[in-house]
Amino acid sequence: MCDVLDAIEKKGYDTGYDTGFDEGEVSKARKVAIRMYQKGVDVADIADYTGTGTETILEWLNAAGEL
């Protein structure tokens, strides 16, 4: 029984860790995209460099008050 609970706990930890890591990557990409835009980089180029869709970049910029 303890082995089952340990496995469940580990899976929960691993899932939480992965989710946090993914959110951190998105946060970093958003900050970089905003800085790139402020320096005059084209939205399409930002999307290409960050591996993110143009619509997402535009949403980030709009939310940051850059558009």
List the main descriptive attributes of the protein structure presented here.
elongated, mainly alpha, 67 residues, Arc Repressor Mutant, subunit A, 0% strand
Structural notes for this entry:
The protein is mostly helical. It has one domain (2-63): Arc Repressor Mutant, subunit A, CATH 1.10.10. It is 82% helix and 0% strand. It has helices at residues 2-38, 43-50, 54-63. Helix 2 (43-50) crosses helix 3. The longest helix has 37 residues, at 2-38.
In short:
The chain is mostly helical. The protein is 82% helix and 0% strand.
Q: Secondary-structure map with pairings?
A:
Blueprint: H1 2-38, H2 43-50, H3 54-63
Helix pairs in contact: 1-2, 2-3
Unreliable runs, pLDDT <50, ≥5 residues?
A: none
- Computed over alpha carbons, the radius of gyration is 18 Å
Judged by helices, strands and strand pairing, the structural class is mainly alpha
Largest sheet: none
Question: If helices are DSSP runs of H or I spanning 4 or more residues, what is the number of helices?
Answer: 3
- Count of discrete structural domains: 1
Kindly state the mean pLDDT as a whole number?
Answer: 82
- Binned strand content: under 5%
Q: What helical percentage do the residues reach? A: over 70%
Q: How many strands appear in the DSSP assignment?
A: 0
Order of helices and strands: HHH
CATH architecture: Orthogonal Bundle
- CATH class, named Mainly Alpha
| Structural shape | elongated
Distance, first to last CA: 56 Å
